[in-house]
């Protein structure tokens, strides 16, 4: 009995030692595997993380989904006068027509060829479609009219003709004001800032050191041809990669 007890006690000690050895071995292997995983994760982020091209592609897709970008809005006032002479009588009316104009960029026209990455200068260039001044939204409630020559207007349809001429002339004047160089430049600058942020923020979040330049078709011709030859659009870069 005592010998049996001694034998059992020795067996238990041997089994306990094996268990401790196995646990220690598992911990060592887990530590080694964890180290390899951490190293692999670091290398993956360092060498195989998101590139400027892939980030730009995602940003471009996000912009396209917005369809149209309202960059700027302005209020204009048109003052026009029309005159008619009939039967030796003269009538004239003056119309004051206020209206609001929105400036938009059709982001649906963007494609991957509009985004170019220059690895030498680390610059991402985006070519936007032209800014469009939308048709004026006339503020009907605040239209004011002043007239002279009531006799002619009472005897003929001169007043209706004057009103029609004034409405057309006033709307044309609102469009002319909206397309002046100053508001168009302000609308382009607003669009430029918005699109620059849309690309620059994801690039910074991905840890990519890059600058973003947004141009319009009429601005691209003034750029250096050498720079454009060095650049590659995102579509070509991704096609070569895959």
From TrEMBL:
Keywords: Membrane, Transmembrane, Transmembrane helix. The keyword Membrane applies. The chain crosses the membrane at residues 21-39. This is DUF4230 domain-containing protein.
């Amino acid at each position: 009995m005592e010998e049996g007890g001694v034998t059992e006690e020795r067996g238990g000690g041997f089994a306990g030692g094996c268990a401790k050895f196995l646990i220690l071995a598992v911990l060592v292997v887990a530590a080694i595997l964890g180290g390899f995983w951490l190293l692999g994760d670091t290398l993956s982020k360092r060498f195989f993380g998101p590139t400027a091209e892939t980030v730009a592609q995602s940003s471009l897709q996000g912009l396209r989904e917005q369809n149209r970008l309202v960059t700027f809005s302005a209020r204009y006032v048109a003052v026009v006068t029309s005159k008619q002479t009939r039967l030796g009588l003269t009538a004239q009316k003056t119309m004051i027509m206020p209206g609001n104009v929105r400036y938009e960029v059709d982001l649906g026209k963007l494609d991957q060829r509009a985004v170019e990455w220059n690895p030498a200068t680390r610059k991402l260039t985006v070519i936007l479609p032209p800014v469009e001044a939308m048709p004026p939204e006339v503020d009907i409630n605040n239209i004011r009219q002043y007239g002279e020559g009531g006799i002619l207007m009472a005897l003929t349809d001169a007043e209706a003709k004057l009103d029609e001429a004034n409405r057309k002339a006033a709307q044309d004047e609102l469009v002319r004001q909206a397309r002046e160089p100053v508001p168009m430049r302000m609308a382009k600058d607003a669009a430029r800032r918005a699109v620059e942020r849309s690309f620059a923020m994801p690039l910074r979040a991905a840890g990519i050191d890059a600058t973003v330049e947004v141009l319009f078709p009429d601005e691209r011709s003034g750029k250096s041809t050498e720079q454009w030859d060095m650049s590659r659009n995102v579509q070509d870069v991704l096609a070569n990669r895959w």
